[in-house]
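User: For a reading group we're discussing how well predicted structures match intuition. Take LuxR C-terminal-related transcriptional regulator. Before you show the prediction, I'll give you the sequence so everyone sees exactly what went in.
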Amino acid sequence: MPSPDLDKWLESQPRVCIQGPAGTGKTLLAARHAARLRRQGTTVVWISLAPAWSDRDSIRTLIRTALARALPEADDPFVALTDGTLPLAVFVDQTEHLTQPDAVAELEALCLQLPDSALIWMLGRPPLPASRWLLRFRLRLVGGEQLWWNDEAQSPVWARLTVPLSPTRRQALGHQLGGWIAPLTLYTEALSAGESTATLLVRQYVEEEVLAPWPEPVRHLARRLALLPEWSLEMAAGEDEHLLQALGEAMAYLAPFEVSGSFGRQLHPLLAACLRPHATHEEAGDEAWQQAMAAHYRDHPDPLICCEWFWRNQQWSGLSQKLAETGQTLLRKGYHLQVLGYLESMPEAVRNNAAMLRLRLWSLFYADRRGELARAIQHARIHISTGGLPADELTLLEMMTRPPKELGTGPDALETLARLRKQTVPVRSVAYLGLASAYYWQGELGEAETLALEALTHAKLEQRFSTVLSASGLALWLMSIRGEVIRARNLLRDSTLWLENFHESGQAPNLVSCWRNSARIRLAVLQGDLESGWKALQPMKLFMASAEPAHQTMTLYSEAFWLLHAGQPAEALDRLDQAERIIRSEGERFSIPAPPVDALRIRCLLMLGRLRDAGELIQSGTGGRGAMHPFDTMEWQEAECLWALFDGQRQQAEERAQALATRAKAERFLAHHLTAKLVQACLTGETGKRRATFERCVEIAASNDLVFPLLHFRPFFTQDLETLQDVPLIGEFVERITHLNVKQTSESDTPLPSGDHEALSRRELQVLELIAEGLSNKEIAVRLHLAPATVKAHIRNIYSKIGARSRADALRLADALNLL
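Assistant: Thanks. Here is the predicted 3D structure of LuxR C-terminal-related transcriptional regulator, as structure tokens, for the group to look at:
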């Protein structure tokens, strides 16, 4: 201890860095000191970091928000706080999340511009051995003493809060509750300044810590909230009833963002009771609190939060009015699943209301529930007046209930869509997207790409999040199958920037585009970036169970494509078998063309050395739609060409390579053209001509950033690669090809994608440890006091984050990643 009187010692220190294990009351101590400073007239800036705020831009945004809230009336809060005229204290909590040097530099720049009189507190767990620079930054910044906060005796407030608990339980609660203990303490400490001040502090915390960094901190809060009932019961036996009441009030404010509903959150009934009066709590204070909360949510600037509050409290008239006012805005922002959930909760309000019906029809369309959409349109035409629905809009929706295959084979459909895109339809982007899908079915890829880009342009003008996601996805897919990496990369960057900036509050809907993610996987693999491809695959796998059969097939095909290039052809064949079964049973009802499964199967067989099986598959002629669709045809011709090469059929390989090169060049399939040229180089007997052909292939690959398929032919051109390393312009690319290692292994030695394993939450780590102990899902639920469905969700998240497919696989990967 630096001093026997901790409070006096802290008040005497202008720079304090407190670090220590979780659960020892660091934040609680700082929050008490912050509340004391507020009462003394000091301007307090509280910056609480989180994993979502780890890069330079996010830190800069977070700092600006914190400064603006500290001085809301100042024209330039930064100038007002740094000119030295105001007493100032800055608290930076959870600094262990500063994992990037540029983020640290941004925070350091702020602190170094603060006046010498400003108080600066840095709080957080000790840095990892790999982050010693973070500790050096803390020491350099505070320039004062370090306070190692490890002894629970040094935290009398925390000890008093948890006096009924065992030391083990106290430590566990500290891990779970450390992130929100600050607003609770601010609330209790501010009670002496009045209830309104305390409420304002909690509201500020909700806006800064819950809404602004959505959704990651909300997930952490949901896990912490799960422990509150047990903690509250244990505390009820103690003497601090006032603190328990304050806890309930503070958490009542957080609770609306955690409840079951469109957000998919879960809330314990004990906390839900805080939101509404009941028989045992009729005091005037409770009623006033409820009224204040109701007024806050009814007038909240975010319409989604308003609708969620109306829905949760079953106030259907208020929900109908809010949806009538803001429903189309919510659809444009991509919240069609939430809107659909609200509408399905009040069928009577939808049945005879044209505005609500229109909202439901568009929600069904964006949710890709085309069968329900067709039935809803038919019901509307028969049973109610459609006078409130624009005729062109209704016709467009009716056209979009048809599968793209039907649109692509009927001239009437194409003519109707072509007419609609020139009319005053409020959503022309949908007409363009429908045409693009139809032409893709027809195999007219150039026209499909042009229309997809037109759909993207109009979707941006119409400010429609979902259509931008889908239209950019189809355009990216068309570019990726042709190997146009540079164009696709530019489009991906621009569309991603638009999507990320669209939701300024950060509350972006959790949507996944099958086309877009499949294209991202293919593009990443073609560039040799298997890690990025793996990350793009995970969201598709996460939503695969609830996806329609066509999207399930695309997910399995994309995973097989990734596995093949990651050197795991056996695992790739397993995914292709699953995809084939879905195609056979559901293929006639697909909303998108089935991928060329058999062509990819041949390449897997070739990598495994099963030439006979590959030859039999080629001889059987099961190229599916190979003669119909250009992509299928190109993939099938490429597979035949490679089989002939590896099977030693020189003349046949030359003929097929020439045919593939000619067709690929004519139809702008760059990657396939490169494969054909590499095969021709392999078959060239003359050394000079062979090297010239190969060098030309390397130039094409380097100028288009195509690592594959060049990497597959590396064993054929080892010496040629060595001689090309010093050639200007392509030497760096050749060195990259030479040293890139893609290990061909069995599943037990699968390379570990880095993925997001470091993002496993504490609860997920607890579940993982109990899996290692051999507990079943039900046993884990009992042990952790969770619902079985919640345990399943945690396990699904674990699989997604570390790339596992089973419990045994998860334990193997967790052991290799040192997570256990």
